[in-house]
Amino acid sequence: MPTWSFRFQLGQYVRTSLWILPVLGLAAGALLGEAALAMDDVVGIPTGSRYTATTATGVLTAIVGAMVALLGFVVTIGVLVVQQATGTLSPRYMRLWYRNPLQKTVLSLFAGTFAFAFTLLRRIGPDTVPDLGVTLAGLAVAVSLVMLLVYLNRFVHDVRPVAIADRVCRTGLRVLGVSLEAQGRCVVLDEPDDGPRRDAPARVVRTEQGGAVQGLDVAGLVRAASRYDCVLVVAHRVGDFVPPGSVLLEVHGTPRSPVEPRRLAGLVALGAERTVEQDPAFALRVLADIAARALSSAVNDPTTAVQVLNHIETFLHGVGRSELRGRHVLADLAGRPRVVVPGHGWEEYLELGVTEVREYGVGSLQVCRRLRALLDGLLAGVPEARRPAVRRQLALLDDAVEREYPEGFRRTLARTGDRQGIGGGGSSPAGPARRDGET
């Protein structure tokens, strides 16, 4: 029986594959062509809607050639997206772009229309013309052209960095919401000081091949721990890279039956790279990459970095108002702790979102001003318990500005929050950020 890890990776492959739906479109087009041929024998076609054999052959031949050309056109656009993503955006974004349903739909429609028209060609003879099929093929071409225009419009608008940042942000927040909803369906315990993982593990489960942790079957882990009557501790967070031979799971307690390492390892999905499926921090990683690439000397586009900061702020506000835990202690239905899963805390999300932008963008006045406005907004918008982390980031920003701008006037400009970076009528210049414990 396939393990959960295999099924998870298969689902990831299907979601990111660009060939599966077009192949299904080819098969569907051929089947619909056969159905149209069968219907043509029983459906009466008005005399004015019939075609000569020469006309039908020419029309269908033109359709076959046009669909092949359009398939090549869409593939060319895909190559351009890859080049832009790897050159000016972030290669990590491709994991999300491969999931674009519109592109797969367009490719499937073109492939299906090609197969449909090609299937009809074999029935054309001196006295036999599939009139219904030729008419339907023409309608399919019309729909294909409309979908091509929709796709071209989406491509032209969505290839901009700010549009990509918006999509990545919305995807990350959706994954975060799904994760919190799944957490709400589990019994989550408040971890006591002497909670699980304080004792030495009775046994460890190691990974053979290694890779990035892409997902966990949390429900399966809880069931396995209940079956063995033990506590399972996941040694790595989703998104971590695990070298071959490393500990994947720790078994605490005395299992009532021999532990099956291979079966337990199958509840943790490892892959070549991170995926957003259970890792909302990966979306923030992509946003930070796009902003950092815009601030590189090769691109030198601080305005794009400021626009990306808008979406980083949106993401951080969503995270800041969510219930985050550094470790999740999950219990069975009887309330006994069964699984310990490490998670990302607020400080880690905050550092991921602003550290590289600050380090690479401190030389740009508008980046400094927008970053300060972002942190000021978080300081006012997140719960009190999470504000010390924001104050520490403000202090780091002050230190960076102090080193970069020795002139008093420019330093004052850099320390003035402005939601547009420059030209937004910034707020009053900020004083030095207070460290924790200062009054």
UniProtKB/TrEMBL annotation:
Source domain of life is: Bacteria
Disordered, as annotated region: 408-439
* Keywords carried by this UniProt record: Membrane, Transmembrane, Transmembrane helix
Q: Does the keyword Membrane apply?
A: yes
Q: Which InterPro entries match?
A: DUF2254_membrane
Which protein is depicted? DUF2254 domain-containing protein
Q: Which organism is it from?
A: Streptomyces werraensis
Q: Which residues cross the membrane?
A: 20-39, 59-82, 102-121, 133-152
Q: Give a yes or no for keyword Transmembrane in this entry.
A: yes
